[in-house]
Each structure stands twice: as structure tokens, then as C-alpha cells.
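QUALITY CONTROL LOG
STEP: pairwise intake check
CHECKER ROLE: data steward
CRITERIA: each record must contain a sequence immediately followed by its C-alpha cells, with no blank fields

ENTRY 1 OF 2
RESULT FIELD BELOW
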Amino acid sequence: MIKEWELLESKVDKDYRVFRIQSDMAMSPRTNKVGMFYTIDTRDWVNVIPVTPEGKIVMIRQYRHGSREVTLEIPGGLVDEDDPGEAARRELLEETGYAGDPAQSLGFVNPNPAIFNNLCHTYLIENAREISEKALDPDEDIEVVLMPLESIPGIIAQGGINHSLVIVAFHFYFMKNLCLL
């Protein structure tokens, strides 16, 4: 049976704007040997699937520095002091100018438990309508794109959406709707 490792020491190795690198010294319960591990300490993330009354998904295109490409995604961001549902509403409005019905939780995942300590929550906001201008951060450059819902599986299959957390969000969405049939 797998047991938790004993944490002997944990300290911040480097602190950045949106995350910290932790260095942890832990002992294996199986071997009693000590290992050094580096983890990324960050706040939870949120993704939101906004659906218009016409059945279009409010998506965004933006340049991503990690992959060095423009990606097709859904709105999302860090959860601040608010709850994930409030963060979903805030991110949708800031990144797209859209708002809608109350946010409905579709589920959450651990993005990568090997190195991250956070969760990524997915929310659905129906009846999304444009109500204001975008309120982008200085380091954001976002284009709003309305996509037909029925096109999403094909776009994913062809690699047009390759952000793993966006694909998981659509998995939650389609599983919820399959269960309602």
C-alpha cells in the first residue's frame, strides 16, 4: 500500500508574480531515503465555458509565451480571494465583455499533481451576452471568437484546440449534457 512521504523541510526557492517554486525535502516510507522535490505553489485556476442564447461558445484567441503560439481557448484565469464561481464570472467579463446566468460548476482537475499544488475549476455560464468592453490586463492581448458548439469536438480532434485544460473543460461540458439525455 502506498503511503504519504514524511515532509522534513519545505521552503520557498523562488517567488514569482503568479507562483512560487517550493523545494521540499521528504523521506520515502518504503526506503527511508530522503529526496529533494520541487513543486509549483500557485492559486487555483478557473476556466469558463460561456454559451450564448444562440448556442455559440464565447472563446478567445491569445498569444501564449510558453508554446510561443496563438491559441484558441475559453476565458479563464487565477482565482483571487473570491470563490471559483465568482472568478469565472470576473474572468469572463474582463477577457470578453460578456456576462450571463449564474456560474454552474462542471468539475475540477489537478493540472499536474507531480509539480502543481492547485486545482483548475470549470464553470458553465449560459445566456452569455456582451455587456461591456473588455478590461484586459496590460500584458493581455485577446480576441473574442464565437464558435458554434457543434464544431468544438472537430476542432479538438484536428488539434485546433490543444490546451489540455480547455479540452478537459469541454469534456466536463459534454459529459454533463450526455447525462441529461
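ENTRY 2 OF 2
RESULT FIELD BELOW
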Amino acid sequence: MTPIARAAALLVLIATPAAAHHGWSSYDSTKMFAIEGAVLESSYGNPHGHLVMEHEGKRWEIVLGPPSRMSTRGLAEADIATGKTVKVEGYPSTRAASEMRAERITAGGKTVELR
């Protein structure tokens, strides 16, 4: 493989995850709202953590920050475990009726900025 072909292949490999990422432009940053209650499902994995909570009779999928950011800012996986009570403030998705991007979360007695 030539150096140019190798460089092109490397560029494709690097760009592919970025292209697959949904980005934050699919959330309405003019309509912040909050959900407070018990965590029904929790994931602390990459590329983002996720929660499922119920709000006004509807199950909401909540997109959190990357695990490295959450950990660095003091939000442990145990703080958002299933059954824990949390408050999440964020923005609704413009694509999915019951999805939100979390801006901050209050869990375990502390508020953590996720962005």
C-alpha cells in the first residue's frame, strides 16, 4: 500500500466515528426542561452515558456526557444506577419525541455540568 493510500485509509477510519455521531444540533436548546425521579435504566458506556426515566407518563431516553467527563466532574456510575433518584435538566430532541440531551444532573447530593 502506498503512503498516500495508507493516509487516505487512516483518514476514513478517523472520520467514520465522527460521521456516525448524532451531534447536538438535533436538540432544541431554547426549550430546557427538567425531569426528576427514579432511574429506570442506566448505562455509563461510551460514547455517552444514557438514562431512561419516566416523565409525565412517558419514558424518556436521556443522553448524558461521555463517561470520562462524568467521572472527572464527580459523577460516579453508582450515582446514576437503576433505582437512584436524580434530577436531569436538558433539551428535547427535535428528532425523537421522548429523548433529551442532559445539560446537568443532580445525583447523590451534587449537581454536575455535563457539557
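INTAKE CHECK: passed for both entries
DESCRIPTIVE NOTE, ENTRY 2: The first strand starts at residue 33 and ends at 43.
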